[in-house]
Structures are given as structure tokens and as C-alpha cells.
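Retro notes
What went well: the complex prediction finally ran end to end.
Inputs used:
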Amino acid sequence: MNFLKKVKDTLKKIGEEDGKEGINSFLHLNPDVLKESEIIEKKIKSGKAGKLAGKIIAIKSNMNVLGMTANCASKTLENYKSTYDATVVKKIKKEDGLIIGMLNMDEFACGSSGETSAFGPTKNPINKELISGGSSSGSAASVAAGFCDISLGSDTGGSIRNPASHCGVVGLKPSYGSVSRYGLMDLSMSLDQIGPLAKNVENVKLMFEVIFGKDGKDATTFDVTEIPEHKKQKKTITIGLSKDFEKLCSDKKMYEIIKKKVAELAKKKGYKVVDVSLKHINLAVQAYYPLCYVEFFSSTRKYDGRRYGHKIDETCGPEVLRRILGGSEISQAEYSGLYYRNALKVKELIKQDFENAFRKVDFIISPTVPRLPHKIGSKITPQEMYSYDALTIPANLAGICAISIPISEINKIPLGMQIMAPAFSENSLFDISEEFEQIK
Amino acid sequence: MDFLWHRVSEKEKEDIKNQAREIMASFEKELKKVESEKVELGVRRKEQLRDETKTQCDPEFRKRFLENAPHKDGDLIKAEKGSWKLK
């Protein structure tokens, strides 16, 4: 198919189905998109195009794309125009990926539902009454709605995997240190990762291959020059299931479906399935939020309305303010690390739990989200909202890689399966995810 | 409460602050359960220093950067003194 025509058709579809009355997944469209498409099309025809040529890509609004509006879905940065490209964006452009626009999200990535955006909630394309999940709400919804081939999101406690699960798409949280965060407006620097979302594993893998790697501008990135190859010589793959994850699922039916799918693949491929203990993951939410509050408070001090935007404390919504005020409170000397030290301790214990488990198994599998998405505007407590990420936060705290793939449906609502693997084993994740795709 | 975005009033700000305090206190109560477990904290790194990489300066950057500044005087950013304090 002619690439320019594909782009024009996509823009038409976005015009008809997105916007505030529609899915509301985009906040800003690239004004030069047709001009850039023509350049890419010429490259495709001449056979000199990069790996991402022909793909339409959309970016979460907390990443810098030169000249585009990166407002973090906040009034604080409403008119902020990026002055440079994030490293991931540079890599996409180098491989001739076409960036079509900037996506809606929870304000400053503070949220698990896609509702906290100052520009209105993102609706779930499967059922517009429901939340899309968050915080990378637009990243999942735009892919599910067919507005782009691949999107980028960021995942601090589940913000890629959670909306991927609710919208029925694939979302990868890469290992900590595998993808540069230079140019990402951070939520919690010790946990944030940028990762891809797409309708299939193939496109997620393609994007990961483009964006991963060491970057001199992000000191946390590791010198992994090649993605570790799947251990083909290993005869038997062992999958771990954990009762500790099962206990965290408020909807037991979900866990049963996941167990059945694991059993089905194991039978087909001759894999072993064993039980593993992860005894500290029941404290993941309680450890994550103090860390997140403190780091977020620290990172927001740059939004002082001097160099760009407005003062964040005067322009943000309630959830962002809750985290700023909470972070400020627990940063004060009188608490002297009371919250932070214990949270770090639990983080380390969870990391050790996973290290021990991965001595016995190659993968650990669970549902992605412990409950189905609620109706937009439902009244729930912050603790209930935070518990949406109870199954995804452990992977962030442990620094491992994890993927969410659509595996089934409950009452026509997509159900995501989360597959976790040791750090820098993304290729293994892709292999087994593709096997699950085939039995779906 | 719902999680839809809205402007926060001064009264609500106080409620949010108390709520954040309560949430953290409830989490801390749970986290205390691991106090007796021994854990070594700290970053394990082979090398403490990283290589510095040379970056090229973009001559257009200053112009683009200043376009975002709300108050400026030529190529200087104007900022008030001492009023930036968290209430």
C-alpha cells in the first residue's frame, strides 16, 4: 500500500473518531506529517529506508519531540514546545519512523486510569464508557483504535502494561537501564522506563530493537550492545505461577483463565509449570508510593513557571497535587527517612524474591491488572486506584522486563496476561509471547 | 471521589494534604512488618565513575528555549526573587 495514502486515511480516521467527543487519545498532531510522509515514501521507493519506514508512530506527551507540544496532559505545560528530541525519538527518526502526534495520558503520568488528564479522559476504544487504563492511556487507546501502528509509553509502576491490558494490545516494560530516558519528563527516576505498545508482538519487538541501548545522556543505561538471545540450547522451559500473585487478584476468574492458558501452552510445547514464592509482593504498592511521591516531588521543583509553563502547585489537578504534597511531607527532616528507608528495604526484598524465583523458572506469569476497568468518573478511593498496579509494580521494583499481551476476554472486556523475565531477557519474552499469540 | 481532573480549591488542597498524610501513614504501618528482616541497601556498581561524552551545542537551542519562557528580556529569563516556596 502507498504510504502517503495510508497516512491520509489514518488522519481521516483520527479526525472522525478521536477528539474530545471521541476516544480523545491525541493531544497534538504533527503539522508536518504529510511532508514527512512524502520524504519517507521516496526513501521506501529508493530502497534506502530505515527499519521503521512505513510505520505510523505516536508518542506519549511526556517525551520531547522537537517542535511538538509535550504538555504531560497538564495545564502547567499547556503551551510548552519541545526544544529537542528525546533519545528514543532521535532513534525513531533515524530509522524513518513517522511521528503522527502526541498522546493523551494521566497528568504527569500520575494515574492508573487515564482520567486525570487536564484535557479530558481517554476512552477505551473497546467500550467508550470504560477507562482505557493509564497512565499511558492515549498510547494504548490510539493503537487499539487503529490510529497508529506503534506508540511509545512510559512505565513506572505499570503505566504501559495496565492500559495495554484494558485496551487489548501488547505493551512492553523493558528492563531498567535498557532504554534511555533522556528527554522523558520523569515521574520517578529510579523506576521509569520507556517502552512500546502495538497490536502484535512483532511490532513491539521491532520498536524495542530501535530504541534500546546505552546512552551517554542517561547514566542509568547499561552497555548491552546486543539483546541477549533466547537460550535455545535449554531443553525445557519452566514457567512459574505464584499464589502470591493470585492472592492480589480481586477477580479470581481472571487468575483461572491465565492458569488455563499457561497449562494449554505448556502442554503444547512440553514446558514445565511450577509454583514460585514471591512473599514480599503483597507490599509492592505500599513500597512503591512513598518512593514515587518523594521522587515526583523532587522532579516537579523545576516546574516553577520561570523557564517554561506555569507553577505546578497552582495549576495541577488533585492527583498530581496529592503526590506533590505527600512527597513534600515525607521529604521533611522530621521523618528522617522513616518512610523512604523502609520502602527501599521492601524494594530490595522484592528484587531478591525475583532473583530467587528466576533460579528455578524462566518466566513468571500473572494477570496484568487485578480487576476489570471501571466506568469513567466512578467514585473510588486513592488506595483502590493504586491497587490497579498491584501486579505490575513488582517488576518495576525488581528492575526486570515484563510484557502484557491480550489473552482472553471477560464480558467482552480484554484480559491481559503479564509475562515477566529476568532483566535483559526481552528476546525470551518476545519468543514466548508469540507462542501465546498463536494459541489465543 | 472520582479521578477526573478539576481545578483544586484552597479548601480541597488542605483535604488532599491530609489524605496524602493518611495514605502514607497506612502504608508505613504495613512496611514496618519487614523491619526485622536484614537487607543491604545501596547500589552495586563495579565502577563509580562513568565516561563523559562530548556533546555538540545546537546554535538554535537558545532561541527555541527562550520561546517557552513566560517572561523574558532579550535573551534573559526574568524571574521573581524568593517567592517560590511550597506552601
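What we learned: Chain A has a mean pLDDT of 94.
What to try next: split runs per interface for comparison.
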